[in-house]
Amino acid sequence: MKLLLDAGNSRIKWQLRDRADIVCSGVDVAETAGLFREMDDRLWTQVDFVAICTVRSESAREALVRAIKLHTQVPVRFFWTEPRFGDLVCAYENPSAMGADRWHAMVAAWEVFKGACVVIDAGSAITVDWIDASGRHEGGYILPGKNLMLDALSQKTARVLFQREQTLASVSPGQTTGECVLHGVNWLLRALAIELGRKTTVPVMVTGGDGPYIKKALSESADPALPVRLSPDLVLDGLAQVANC
Ligand SMILES: Nc1ncnc2c1ncn2[C@@H]1O[C@H](COP(=O)(O)OP(=O)(O)O)[C@@H](O)[C@H]1O
Ligand SMILES: CC(C)(COP(=O)(O)O)[C@@H](O)C(=O)NCCC(=O)O
Ligand SMILES: [K+]
What we know:
By secondary structure, the chain is α/β, with parallel strands linked by helices. The protein is 35% helix and 25% strand. It is found in: Cytoplasm.
């Protein structure tokens, strides 16, 4: 069985897969021993390969390897952005500079649609990437995600004081600082989805922690005929494909 990891800037998501079956899974913020609390000794003996997609720092990458080596000595391999995978071709002149999460998300989306599509990953950062009908990556955008926007406001202003409430989905004009900030960020995410829905004629694949919010806004605003698919494990799906498991 293959252990697959997607180490994003906020959270590390992992799954133990037996081909397409997800046998065990977990998520945590840090690469500590507790990351794999859902695994037991019996499952660890069944792991024969570890595949990792990371956008974290080099020191975090090394810490992750140490955390894995506490449990298993099987090969651990990192997968980075490649110039191409099958028909999918990276737009970057220097593909290794593009986040490996973006690449593996695109690999998985291309496998699903096998045609022109947009991939939006609403994680710590929000990334939007376009693929044309031939598999050529046309390019994309990188924007701050919801938490990063809230962090920027609380750290770079003196008097914008608010509590975080992740569940608040309203976009009505706020009447307290907290409402103004939280509704404002929701409004921006919604505006992004509406703009995407208005401009896009090709299927949209959505992933990331704030993916459900983007998907909902897209579904409410775009042409009902526009295919919009939410796939929370998109990066792991792409990684599984590239790692050939
Ligand atoms: N339990 C949660 N912990 C952290 N972020 C969450 C959680 N639930 C939703 N989110 C949202 O998800 C975003 C992070 O998404 P995620 O896909 O985990 O990021 P990354 O891939 O960068 O690690 C945050 O901006 C936040 O708004
Ligand atoms: C843009 C990202 C920060 C997104 O990461 P995430 O929000 O999923 O943690 C990551 O893909 C990254 O570090 N990219 C490197 C720069 C680039 O893609 O051009
Ligand atoms: K992201």
